[in-house]
UniProtKB/TrEMBL annotation, chain A:
One of its GO terms (biological process) is protein K69-linked ufmylation. Keywords: Ubl conjugation pathway. It holds the Pfam family UFC1. GO terms for cellular component: cytoplasm. Interacts with UBA5 (via C-terminus). Interacts with UFL1. Interacts with UFM1. Interacts with KIRREL3. E2-like enzyme which specifically catalyzes the second step in ufmylation. Accepts the ubiquitin-like modifier UFM1 from the E1 enzyme UBA5 and forms an intermediate with UFM1 via a thioester linkage. Ufmylation is involved in various processes, such as ribosome recycling, response to DNA damage, interferon response or reticulophagy (also called ER-phagy). CDD domains: UBCc_UFC1. GO terms for molecular function: UFM1 conjugating enzyme activity. Belongs to the ubiquitin-conjugating enzyme family. UFC1 subfamily. This is Ubiquitin-fold modifier-conjugating enzyme 1. The keyword Transferase does not apply.
Automatic annotation (TrEMBL), chain B:
Coiled coil: none annotated. InterPro entries: ThiF/MoeB/HesA, ThiF_NAD_FAD-bd, Ubiquitin-activating_enz. The gene is UBA5. Keywords: ATP-binding, Metal-binding, Nucleotide-binding, Ubl conjugation pathway, Zinc. Belongs to the ubiquitin-activating E1 family. UBA5 subfamily. Residues 2-192 form the THIF-type NAD/FAD binding fold domain. Gene3D superfamilies: NAD(P)-binding Rossmann-like Domain. GO terms for biological process: protein ufmylation. This is Ubiquitin-like modifier-activating enzyme 5. GO terms for molecular function: ATP binding; metal ion binding; UFM1 activating enzyme activity. It comes from Ursus maritimus (Polar bear). It holds the Pfam family ThiF. One of its GO terms (cellular component) is cytosol. It comes from the Eukaryota.
Length: 167, 292
């Protein structure tokens, strides 16, 4: 599974109750509220731990999400745009997060910039349907991916810092 | 199946477009309708379901069969959702990440297990783990395995549509040992998909309404006008051999396991923080997030 630090972070993210997808009308609105509550709490936790690493927002229907994520490496802050669609089988299947500007720069990515997660993610998600939501996806999916890929890409010179941004 | 048709001169085309051109050259009498989109999004899913319901040989009628040749779990779940809702029979196919096993599965909503009834099935690959650089990971792609799976898929389709032979509900292919496990799986009465459960009820009603059929044993008399040479037919396998080679039927036959297991739902066994209903509306929450 994930390492100890990640497990601790995840245990502090509120779990969700409503098992509803984007086609479930009123129940989907309920689920969306829970998603936002869980995400807000997670971002607050991150700020308190001095590790505010992403922002997310959605379209009105909650079917299309987009935002930014940051990774600090050697005192420099790298920023990336992220986006994903909610699949109709959500929350049984997790959304595929895409980092379009890194498309083609790493082998751990599918066409269009969709990040490739480890073998562990899918069974873990499946075991926790419908309790896991977008906050968990960020913590267990995108977070670990950035932690491994960005330093590697910087080291290989594949990505450069856009402008100096002191902490 | 979804990548077997590309030829070098088709670089730049989508997979479905290349498939159409290649197949049309092989058999110009086939009618094609091509769409290139992600079926898991809300917008496209509706169109996808619409084409299943109306894209039959006669426009407005449903298709006879859906064949899933996609390469990811999410797309398969989307097809499963659509077919459960529409009561559409379909066949699912796939090749494993390590390219040395594959399978086909026939899904009749309500009658056989749907794709969500159990965790994903895995044909045991029997790869020596010591040969792998990274534990449990061996990504590969073999058009030969894909060709075999495509062949058994279409074979199953022919048997299904033309009503001959035994149509397999599940047929696996273990390329390392040339082992072809088969089985059938009943639907899960507690399947997470509401429509699957609904289809199961409909199917039970349908079966209950059928008149009881006596199993009639008909012995076909083989008649030959003359038998100049006195040829007799003798079985190659003796009664005893037949008896010894049959055994009890296990839950899953040899060579097939599940990709993972899902524990029984426990009632609040672990102390977890759950979202609280703060009374804020969705708009309030969206604005709160934006201002963080």
């Amino acid at each position: 599974m994930a390492d100890e630090a990640t497990r601790r972070v995840v245990s502090e993210i509120p779990v969700l109750k409503t098992n509803a997808g984007p086609r479930d009308r009123e129940l989907w609105v309920q689920r969306l509220k829970e998603e936002y509550q869980s995400l807000i709490r997670y971002v607050e936790n991150n700020k308190n731990a001095d590790n505010d690493w992403f922002r997310l927002e959605s379209n009105k229907e909650g079917t299309r999400w987009f935002g930014k994520c940051w990774h600090i490496h050697d005192l420099l802050k790298y920023e990336f745009d992220i986006e994903f669609d909610i699949p109709i089988t959500y929350p049984t299947t997790a959304p595929e997060i895409a980092v379009p500007e890194l498309d083609g720069k790493t082998a751990k990515m599918y066409r269009g910039g969709k990040i490739c997660l480890t073998d562990h993610f899918k069974p873990l998600w499946a075991r926790n349907v419908p309790k896991f939501g977008l906050a968990h996806l960020m913590a267990l999916g995108l977070g670990p991916w950035l932690a491994v890929e960005i330093p590697d890409l910087i080291q290989k010179g594949v990505i450069q810092h856009k402008e100096k941004c002191n902490q | 199946m979804n990548r077997l048709f590309f030829q070098p001169h088709q670089a730049g085309l989508s997979k479905v477009q290349a498939a159409e051109y290649t197949l049309r050259n092989i058999n110009p009498d086939v009618l094609f309708e091509v769409h290139n989109y992600n079926i898991t999004t809300v917008e496209n899913f509706q169109h996808f379901m619409d084409r299943i319901s109306n894209g039959g040989l006669e426009e407005g009628k449903p298709v006879d069969l859906v064949l899933s040749c996609v390469d990811n779990f999410e797309a398969r779940m989307a097809i499963n959702t659509a077919c459960n809702e529409l009561g559409q029979t379909w066949m699912e196919s796939g090749v494993s990440e390590n390219a040395v096993s594959g399978h086909i599965q026939l899904i009749i909503p309500g009658e056989s297990a749907c794709f969500a009834c159990a965790p994903p099935l895995v044909v045991a690959a029997n790869i020596d783990e010591k040969t792998l650089k990274r534990e449990g990971v061996c990504a590969a792609s073999l058009p030969t395995t894909m060709g075999v799976v495509a062949g058994i898929l279409v074979q199953n389709v022919l048997k299904f549509l033309l009503n001959f032979g035994t149509v397999s509900f599940y047929l696996g292919y273990n390329a390392m040992q040339d082992f072809f496990p088969t089985m059938s799986m009943k639907p899960n009465p507690q399947c997470d998909d509401r429509n699957c459960r609904k289809q199961q009820e409909e199917y039970k009603k349908k079966v209950a309404a059928l008149p009881k059929q006596e199993a009639v044993q008909e012995e076909e008399e083989i008649i030959h006008e003359d038998n100049e040479w006195g040829i007799e037919l003798v079985s190659e396998v003796s009664e005893e051999e037949l008896k010894n080679s049959s055994g009890p039927v296990p839950d899953l036959p040899e060579g097939i396991t599940v990709a993972y297991t899902i524990p029984e739902k426990q009632e609040d066994s672990v102390a977890e923080v759950t979202v609280e209903d703060s009374g804020e509306s969705l708009e309030d929450l969206m604005a709160k997030m934006k201002n963080m």
